[in-house]
Amino acid sequence: MYWMYLALFVLAVLTPEIIRSGGGMLDEEDIEALLIFCFGAAGFMMYLVKEKALLSLLRERLHLQRQTHDITRDLSDSYSYIGEVNRKLDILKELVFQLPARITEVSASNIGKTPEESYQSVLEAVRTFSRAESATVVFVDMAAKASMKMVSTAGNSPFPVPESSKLAASKKLFYEEDGLVIVRSPELARGIAAFIIFQKAMNRVDDADILKMFAASALALYCVNR
Known about the structure:
Blueprint: H1 2-18, H2 28-108, H3 117-130, E1 135-141, E2 146-152, H4 164-169, E3 174-177, E4 180-184, E5 192-199, H5 208-224
Helix pairs in contact: 1-2, 2-3, 2-5, 3-5
């Protein structure tokens, strides 16, 4: 491209040497001025075309950079999501594999109530899935609308737990209320339902079915030695 600018410049400089006489209605000076103007206009047009091409390349490069940034961010989010899913699966498998041993342990302990430690693995799994600081499980007699037992990861629940009558009156298995997430076991066992309660820590809780399974697991532990 630059050699074309050079050629136009040389032609413009040599125009007086090329044109030595006038022609028709134009004299020598007019012809030289017209040619020099044409050479200049041609050079200017070439410059505009080149500038437009450079701007197009710059926009394409910026677009590719944005795409690269978006792809990198999406990959990072995907890796984070995969890592989180794998961690949740490990916790879920551990809980499922340990449940028979927990039930056997509770059955062998000839006492009138389930040891508190038996529920901690379930509650810790709930904390991990919900990202909550603490979790509580409440066992409610649905007919009497009375609380039979309550266990929390922090000993006493750090947040106010809804009344048993209010829990029993709700027909929902998963709902939010006053900043709390409440998950009920899908089925009753001997008229008892397990309610897992924790403070909402995320904008959206996507593991409702898994949390219901945790509630069912806690209910199974409760019923073994009741």
